[in-house]
Design brief:
Elements (H helix, E strand, L loop, with lengths): L10 H6 L22 H24 L3 H4 L21 E4 L9 H5 L6 E4 L7 E2 H8 L4 H6 L13 H7 L5 E2 L2 E4 L2 E4 L1 E4 L2 E4 L4 E3 L5 E3 H55 L1 H32 L23 H24 L1 H20 L6 H24 L3 E7 L21 H5 L4 E8 L3 H4 L1 H35 L12 H12 L1 H27 L6 H35 L3 H14 L1 H34 L17 H39 L12 H18 L1
Antiparallel strand pairs: 1-2, 3-4, 5-6, 7-8, 9-10, 11-12
Helix pairs in contact: 2-12, 2-15, 2-17, 8-11, 8-20, 8-21, 9-10, 9-20, 11-20, 11-21, 11-22, 12-15, 15-16, 15-17, 15-18, 15-21, 17-18, 18-19, 20-21, 20-22
GO molecular function: antiporter activity; choline transmembrane transporter activity; transmembrane transporter activity
Protein name: Choline transporter-like protein
GO cellular component, one term: plasma membrane
């Protein structure tokens, strides 16, 4: 077969997947005369954005992020907030921590005991009765004890009156601040849990309690604070390392830019750099895991324990286990073997991918503005993410303080009812339930806005995902228009119009906002279904059986496949929109039919090219990750001194690695979109033209020859 002959598809294929394109002497690339497409979806999209802006403004008015940052006492006052009487009282103190074993802790998310703000935690055992006996000899005992009482407390009340007024705790014990709250200062002595060398203590009500009971109560509160504990520590690490993270991400951006520029000149050589670099980085990870494993093996054997019987679950402790590093080593070995096997078995197809990358390099060289476009995408995505986070925080902290009745004994018929703390002691509830408290529970309200806050959270997430997918779709359509303009120019670069990327971006915004919103809406709905599935899995985790878990795994797999298939079809639909300016459904149909008519070419080009680019992304993320690991673990003192006293060094490390990968993905996606657009245009070119003088191909002879050659190989094998 000579170069002018086109590989024939069977008649059944043409009938099933539409008629091939025919020669059109007036077709010169992306159509200039267009009209607006998918107008209804565009209007819905704009209305959702307007509603999203209004929601953000309303949340801004009603929300208060301080409620998430400061602990709150029983009166709803913040501990440690500047400009308030509690400015110097930054720690929350529980009057009777033993009450936190009540089932109402999990029901109301609040411990049923009075809570006040204090400046420090107790340092010794002392009951209120003992303090009264010592007060007659030394007034200083009351001065020490009153720090943990309300301002109206006096040292001369009887125990019965004290319990009724609830002005002071009946007993205090050695504690230490943890998450701005006073928790028992546990220690172990000969394997036994103690507080201040004691295993039992007086509770102030005439009873003797065990330290283990106090530990169980503290653990009950800890279940409510675990997530906040991790969040605060992560926030502290980010506060200490944010500028180093930005430096690492900047280096990743520069490195990605360098690789993109080098791909134009040394694509083949750079592929070997990608391959050797990725294999070397994974090999370094295997070596480091082995070193950690052997080092831990030499230490005395120890049993994994939870600090303070669950009061603090230190995630870093898992990195002190041999099993952790052994598992990491096995995983990295498997990845290393998979990468090497893929390189061996795909070596011929990789050559085709390198030719496509070289052709893409020429296109990017003639349209250099495409290298800057990822920066615009990052800016738009950052705006969407920041708006979503801020709106979510203000929604979560919206409302006014809500107080509820809490009965320590749990036998009050009015328990969990709303109340007013200022008049509570004069109400019938206080008389019907002696000892009941009116404590702060949460922030909320009875207005229409407060009733629909959960719905607003869902809407916030939905529009956020829609906007993210729309920004990605806009970038893909704009890049496709620019690269299609390059391909359909007969004399390159003379026939390429000025500012092709700007023109394609303007067309996408002006005419095809509705079509891009339509395509991104489909992806968003699938992602929302996946989130709902994960939510149900989390809520029903304890009640699941083997069959339900199997079905959930099948659903996850199906949705993952569906999402990736729709994303692939959407990308090609956006290319057709950029070229012909038709609506989304028509463009998706045309793209699908075109790909199916050229399915053999798709098999030898598309995924292999993505694999080569994936190696480049791994190299960028891996290189920056290794440097970040050495830096945050204080192993590069010669170059720079890393931040000290981090709670979790892996927090900035994973942020740098993940951020570097996203940056590399953004830049390399320009190449991926370029190759995919060139491939779609190539398939159209083969159908429109035959390579003769009257109907010349727009594709370069080198690319035409290798794609046709690779397509003929499987055809001959069939014959």
């Amino acid at each position: 077969m000579n170069d002018t002959e086109k590989p024939a598809d069977t008649p059944s294929e043409e009938e099933d997947f539409g008629d091939p394109r025919t020669y059109d002497p007036d077709f010169k690339g992306p159509v200039a005369n267009r009209s607006c497409t998918d107008v209804l979806c565009c209007m819905i999209f704009l209305l959702c954005i307007i509603g999203y802006i209004i929601l953000g403004l309303v949340a801004w008015v009603h929300g208060d992020p301080r409620r998430a940052a400061y602990p709150t006492d029983s009166q709803g006052h913040f501990c440690g907030q500047k400009g308030t009487p509690n400015e110097n009282k930054t720690i929350l103190f529980y009057f009777n921590l033993l009450r936190c074993t009540s089932p109402s802790v999990l029901l109301n998310l609040q411990c049923p005991t009075t809570q006040i703000c204090v400046s420090k935690c107790p340092e010794k055992f002392l009951t209120y009765v003992e303090m009264q006996l010592l007060y007659t000899k030394d007034k200083s005992y009351w001065e020490d004890y009153r720090q943990f009482c309300k301002t109206t407390a006096t040292p001369v009340k009887s125990l019965t009156q004290l319990l009724l007024d609830d002005d002071c705790p009946t007993a205090i014990f050695p504690s230490k601040p943890f998450l701005q709250r006073c928790f028992p200062d546990f220690s172990t002595k000969n394997g036994t849990l103690t507080i201040g060398s004691k295993m039992v203590f007086q509770d102030g009500n005439g009873g003797t309690r065990s330290v283990v009971e106090l530990g169980i109560a503290a653990n009950g509160i800890n279940k409510l604070l675990d997530a906040k504990s991790l969040g605060l520590k992560v926030f502290e690490d980010y506060a200490r390392t944010w500028y180093w993270i930005l430096i690492g991400l900047t280096i990743a951006m520069v490195l990605s830019w360098i690789f993109l520029i080098l791909l134009r000149f040394i694509a083949g050589c750079l592929f070997w750099v990608f391959m050797i670099g990725v294999i070397g980085i994974i090999g370094y990870g295997i070596w480091h895991c082995y070193q950690q494993y052997t080092n831990l093996q030499e230490r005395p054997s120890s049993v994994l324990t939870i600090y303070d019987i669950g009061i603090q679950t230190n995630i870093s402790m898992y990195f002190e286990l041999q099993q952790t590093w052994f598992a990491f080593m096995i995983i990295l070995c498997i990845i290393e073997v998979i990468v090497i096997l893929m390189l061996i078995f795909l070596r011929n197809r990789i050559r085709v991918a390198i030719i496509l990358l070289k052709e893409g390099s020429k296109a990017i060289g003639y349209v250099p503005s495409t290298l800057v476009y990822p920066a615009l995408t990052f800016i738009l995505l950052s705006i969407c993410i920041c708006y979503w986070v801020v709106t979510a925080v203000f929604l979560a902290t919206s409302g006014v303080p809500v107080y509820k009745v809490i009965a320590p004994g749990g036998h009050c018929i009015h328990e969990n009812q709303t109340c007013d703390p200022e008049i509570f002691n004069t109400t019938e509830i206080a008389k019907a339930c002696p000892g009941a408290l009116c404590n702060f529970a949460f922030y909320g309200g009875k207005s229409l806005y407060h009733q629909y806050i959960p719905t607003f959270h869902v809407y916030n997430l939905f529009v956020f995902l829609w906007l993210i997918n729309f920004v990605i779709a806009l970038g893909q359509c704009a890049l496709a228009g620019a690269f299609a303009t390059y391909y359909w120019a007969m004399k390159k670069p003379d026939d390429i119009p000025r500012y092709p990327l700007f023109t394609a971006f303007g067309r996408a915004i002006r005419y095809h906002t509705g079509s891009l919103a339509f395509g991104s809406l489909i992806i968003t709905l699938i992602q929302m279904f996946k989130i709902v599935l994960e939510y149900l899995n989390h809520r029903l985790k304890r009640t699941q059986n083997t069959l339900s878990k199997f079905l959930q795994c099948c659903l996850r797999c199906c949705f993952w496949c569906l999402e990736n298939a729709i994303k692939f079809l959407n990308r090609n639909a956006y290319i057709m929109i950029a070229i012909y300016g038709r609506n989304f459904c028509r463009s998706a149909k045309d793209a699908f039919n075109l790909l199916m008519r050229n399915v053999l070419k798709v098999a030898v080009t598309d995924e292999v090219t993505y694999f080569v680019l994936f190696l480049g992304k791994l190299l960028v993320a891996g290189s920056i990750g290794v440097l970040a690991f050495l830096f945050f673990t204080q192993r590069l003192p010669v170059i720079a001194q890393g931040p000290a006293s981090l709670n979790y060094y892996w927090v900035p490390l994973l942020t740098v690695i993940f951020g570097s990968y996203l940056i590399a993905h953004g830049f390399f996606s320009v190449y991926a979109m370029c190759v995919e657009t060139i491939f779609i245009c190539f398939c159209e070119d083969l159908e429109r033209n035959d390579g003769s003088t009257e109907k010349p191909y727009f594709v370069t002879p080198n690319l035409h020859g290798i794609l046709i050659k690779k397509q003929l190989v499987p055809q001959k094998q069939k014959e």
